[in-house]
């Protein structure tokens, strides 16, 4: 999720849904809302809450973060007071992958952005800076400009690109201490003035040297590039993990040695069952589409490979499970520990667990899933929804997907593993490191397997207990070597 749907606003913990407040109040007087508005709504995980950033030097003037504005406007005492119109509008609506029509399966669907832009044009009564917070294809600002100016009634709109770089689970930390804030604008006096206005907002808590200003297209493209580079690192280390398994090298040791080179650095080199989350795949597909549209098929092919390796890593994992268990998991109970796309979030968007579970179910396994934060309802939806449908509003999704019968969702790792033939660890939740694996082993069918897709368990300890253990990119058990996984 991006900034959260509900922000604790008052001492009695009353929360406000920004989307609902937006729509409700739009009917009354939308212009009143547009002082420091943040256009976005629901979220897939509401676990982060927001606290006021500490003011720092720079910027000048009194800084009032957006949720304080919201608190004011929702306070009954203040409702009657005259309110200023918005100067800056942040738009952070979803930009999913198109599911049909031109560019389906690759291009970004800008329906939501366009409707937000039309709404802004419709209700505005004074000049505005409209900020692209959503991740959008390069050149989107040009389209938005056209919508706004053609409906402007003489109002001046400046579009800025101010992409968001926060990661889930560390959203608040990333908001307060970003590596950088990026602001792109038109290279005109009006565009430059708008950049300075937004810069002065961030300067209240971000050191000035960490605020980068560029032209619009560089800012838009930098966001796609940053996500592509991050995902590429994971696909690179995951590609190495396959080679490690084939050769007896240990991917952890390889990544450590490689990452010690200061030019490469140690972060984002954890081999895994594959990257997930709402953005990496979507943004790379979008990048690929943009390259194709710009007549750059070789560049498109290069970035496509990052996704291909990610898909390969997930299917390689499934093949490993099935091959190790005598080439069939039919009617075998497989415990899935972790369903979220990473720890410390309940978000399941594009989680590798979906593909792994679907793969196992395709081989007729019975899966028993435990995740500390993901509900049964969510899991059933994820296992039945079509690709990319999850990123569209719920009313555009299938009404009541049929529950997958061979799937049980339980609220305890011990329950999930009871009587199971194998365990697949698909999210790196800390609690999976300290489970009582002897107890788990005692209650499982034998031979008992652990397939660790996140490298969280103590391999040697589990092997001592009696498990046959597979850990991504680590030297293989003799058992696994004898049962090669052929895709
Ligand atoms: N999730 C994350 O951690 C990050 C997301 N982003 C980008 O931020 C954007 C939003 O992502 P999420 O927050 O994850 O998506 P989301 O799907 O959780 O939230 C977007 C919300 O916007 C609402 N919305 C759509 N059209 C609207 C309109 N016209 N007016 C008001 N609300 C409207 C939707 O109902 C939805 O609730 C995407 O472009 C994403 O790529 C960027 C960095 C991090
Ligand atoms: O545009 C976005 O939405 C955001 O996408 C990512 O953030 P996020 O998806 O929340 O989470 P990450 O920590 O990047 O993890 C993404 C996936 O990669 C996996 N991963 C990450 C790191 C690693 O070394 N190995 C690995 O497999 C994670 O388990 C997870 O499935 C980026 O890190 C953010 O900078 C960006 O703003």
UniProtKB/TrEMBL annotation:
Its EC number is 1.1.1.22. The active site is at residue 279. The keyword Iron does not apply. One of its GO terms (biological process) is glycosaminoglycan biosynthetic process. SUPFAM superfamilies: 6-phosphogluconate dehydrogenase C-terminal domain-like, NAD(P)-binding Rossmann-fold domains, UDP-glucose/GDP-mannose dehydrogenase C-terminal domain. NAD(+) binds at residues 93-97, 134-135, 168, 279-282, 349. Residues 335-459 form the UDP-glucose/GDP-mannose dehydrogenase C-terminal domain. Pathway: Nucleotide-sugar biosynthesis; UDP-alpha-D-glucuronate biosynthesis; UDP-alpha-D-glucuronate from UDP-alpha-D-glucose: step 1/1. One of its GO terms (cellular component) is nucleus. The keyword Nucleus does not apply. One of its GO terms (molecular function) is UDP-glucose 6-dehydrogenase activity. It is an enzyme of class 1 (oxidoreductase). Keywords: NAD, Oxidoreductase. Pfam families: UDPG_MGDP_dh, UDPG_MGDP_dh_C, UDPG_MGDP_dh_N. It comes from the Eukaryota. SMART domains: UDPG_MGDP_dh_C (SM00984). PANTHER family: UDP-GLUCOSE 6-DEHYDROGENASE 2, UDP-GLUCOSE DEHYDROGENASE/UDP-MANNAC DEHYDROGENASE. This is UDP-glucose 6-dehydrogenase.
């Amino acid at each position: 999720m991006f900034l959260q749907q509900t922000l604790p606003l008052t001492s009695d913990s009353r929360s406000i849904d920004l989307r609902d407040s937006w729509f409700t109040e739009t009917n009354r007087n939308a212009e009143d809302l547009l002082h420091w508005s943040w256009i976005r709504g629901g979220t897939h995980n509401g676990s982060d809450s927001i606290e006021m950033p500490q003011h720092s030097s720079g910027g000048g003037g009194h800084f009032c973060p957006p949720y304080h504005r919201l608190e004011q406007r929702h306070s009954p005492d203040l409702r009657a007071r005259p309110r200023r119109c918005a100067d800056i509008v942040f738009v952070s609506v979803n930009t999913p992958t198109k599911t049909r029509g031109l560019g389906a399966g690759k291009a970004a669907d800008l329906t939501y952005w366009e409707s937000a832009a039309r709404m802004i044009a419709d209700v505005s009564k004074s000049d505005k800076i409209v900020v692209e917070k959503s991740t959008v294809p390069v050149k989107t600002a040009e389209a938005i400009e056209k919508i706004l100016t053609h409906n402007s009634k003489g109002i001046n709109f400046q579009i800025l690109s101010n992409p968001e770089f926060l990661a889930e689970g560390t959203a608040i930390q990333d908001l307060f201490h970003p590596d950088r804030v990026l602001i792109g604008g038109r290279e005109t006096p009006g565009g430059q003035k708008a950049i300075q206005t937004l810069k002065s907002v961030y300067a209240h808590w971000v050191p000035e040297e960490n605020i980068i200003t560029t032209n619009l297209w560089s800012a838009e493209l930098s966001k796609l590039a940053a996500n592509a580079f991050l995902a590429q690192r994971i696909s690179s280390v995951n590609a190495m993990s396959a080679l490690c398994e084939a050769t007896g090298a240990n991917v952890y040791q390889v990544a450590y040695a490689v990452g010690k080179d200061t030019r490469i650095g140690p972060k984002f080199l954890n081999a895994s069952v594959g990257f997930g989350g709402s953005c990496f795949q979507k943004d790379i597909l979008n990048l690929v589409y943009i390259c194709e549209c710009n007549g750059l098929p070789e560049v498109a092919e290069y970035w496509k490979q990052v996704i291909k390796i990610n898909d390969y890593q997930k299917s390689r994992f499934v093949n490993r499970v099935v091959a190790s268990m005598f080439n069939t998991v039919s009617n075998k109970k497989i415990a899935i520990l972790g369903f979220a796309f990473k720890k410390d979030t309940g978000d399941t968007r594009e989680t590798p667990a979906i593909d792994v579970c679907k793969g196992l179910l395709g081989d007729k396994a019975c899966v028993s899933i435990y995740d500390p934060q993901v509900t049964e309802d969510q899991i059933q939806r994820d296992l039945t929804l079509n690709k990319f449908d999850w990123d569209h509003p719920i009313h555009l999704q299938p009404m009541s997907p049929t529950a997958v019968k061979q799937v049980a969702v339980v609220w305890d790792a011990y329950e999930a593993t009871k009587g199971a033939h194998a365990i697949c660890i698909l999210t790196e939740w800390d609690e999976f490191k300290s489970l009582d694996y002897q107890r788990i082993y005692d209650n499982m069918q034998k031979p008992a397997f652990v397939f660790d897709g996140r490298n969280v368990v103590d391999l040697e300890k589990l092997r001592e207990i009696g498990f046959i253990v597979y850990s991504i990119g680590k030297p293989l058990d003799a058992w696994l070597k004898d049962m090669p996984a052929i895709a």
